Amino acid sequence: MHYFITSEKPDTHFINIKWTIPNLHQDIVHVQLPSWRPGRYELQHYAKNLRDFTVANEQGNPVAFRKVSKDRWEIDTAGINKIEISYAYFANQPDAGASYVCEEFLYLNPVNALMYVEGRMDEPGIVEFGIPEHWEIATQLPVKSKHLFSVENYDFLADSPLIASGNLEHYSFQQFNTTFHMWFEGKHTIDPNRLLEDTRHYAEVQHNVFGELPCEHYHFLYLMLDKPFRHGVEHLNSTVIAMGISPDATTEEFYNDLLAISSHELFHLWNVKRIRPEEMLPYDFTRENYSHLGYVYEGVTTYYGDLFLLRSGVWNLDQYLDSLQADLKRHFDNEGRFHYSVAESSWDTWLDGYVPGIPGRKVSIYIEGLIAALVADIMILKNSKGKYRLDQVLNDLYHHDYKSGKGYNEARYQALLEQYGGCSFVPYFKDLIWGKGQHEVWLRETLVSIGLELQVQEGDSGAVIRLNRVENQTDQQKELFGYWIKAV
Hints:
The chain has helices spanning 110-113, 154-158, 192-210, 251-267, 294-311, 317-332, 342-347, 349-352, 367-383, 390-401, 410-421, 426-433, 439-449, 475-485, and strands spanning 2-6, 14-21, 28-32, 50-57, 65-69, 72-76, 83-90, 100-101, 105-108, 116-117, 125-130, 136-139, 143-145, 148-151, 162-165, 169-175, 178-185, 217-224, 229-234, 238-244, 452-459, 462-469. The strands form 5 sheets. It has a 7-stranded mixed beta sheet. Strands 16-17-18-20-19 form a 5-stranded mixed beta sheet, with helices on one face. 33% of the residues lie in helices and 26% in strands. A hairpin with a 3-residue loop joins β8 (100-101) and β9. α3 runs parallel beside α4. The chain contains 14 helices and 22 strands. The model has no long low-confidence stretch (mean pLDDT 97). By secondary structure, it is of the alpha+beta class. The two termini are 45 Å apart.
């Protein structure tokens, strides 16, 4: 299969796609455009951005087709060996999960705009770009020649974002037999040498949790915007991070925010891109992929994203606690914690998980998941006297489940927590995962055990959160704190 991608009038924000499908041996084929993208667990209906859909045979004559659902087409192919499907896709959304084209660059998430043939998702293909000769392309896609790339199957293609531009900045470094690439599109104030060095440090700690990096090349695609913005999306061997500084942020604050989201997205290289709930193995792009496990695939990742910056020495304790305080403020400002559990909220991301919704209805799988991960990590550290922690749970899910081609479920996750913690996690799941309004008790006790005191006061703009070191800490508190911040 061959996809040819260009933009005839980039000022209109339309991408033009010609898709050639050979080896047709049936009377009818069905083609499908995804309804959602991995990394955002809600239906997004990308077909609403499509126009001018046509089908032609090898002679260029029209071929009959019918649209049979919002994003699925049925094509009459009796006696036809090859067809070419053409359409235009409106790409005018410069965030980390969408697509955008203008005179200066083309940014594409293939899952938004490129279709697949039902029953032929495992076939390899070619992606070619009709763009200016001097433009470079930043992507995880394997290069065949300039502007021409190979894909092993549709899942890989759908998970391979790209930025094509004549102004790309490119930096790289080698770590554990993996080359890390950093691509910048847009103006920025980031010191690339500092970013390379800091990335090297936190990437080393992440690597050590699992003992390996699962790819030869990893790409950070930074889309630097001229407006306040923060959004990142994970992919198999890459991430897109769209960032724009706000007027009230300093350059240093912006840099640390960039580090935090970058560390979060890199940890997804293992957690959810490979360690995946059984409900999402494989992805079904046509409908909701319901799961109660958002507190693992997003919550655990949110917890570790900042913690790795602390454990690697990139952040000091004050920087980490400032970030944790901001996350806890989101928890205490959300009345939804009294009305809906984090497991239920995970299921309902497909309903209203990424918009405010009605007042106090739900919680965040990121924030409540972070709290649950913190509690689990300290429970394991405390009961094993520093021998084990949540790291080992993730390591097992990667080496024993992912590498065996299996997804995990809640029972498996709980069993691993209990295995390494040496205690029952039944009350934990009852209160923190499926319960409501119980987080504060667990959180305070957990923080005190590592010598931190949580103070919460009501202010004009919601809760005011303070995390302070406990005075006159016990030896046990000091010891457990040391285990917690220790790098692998």
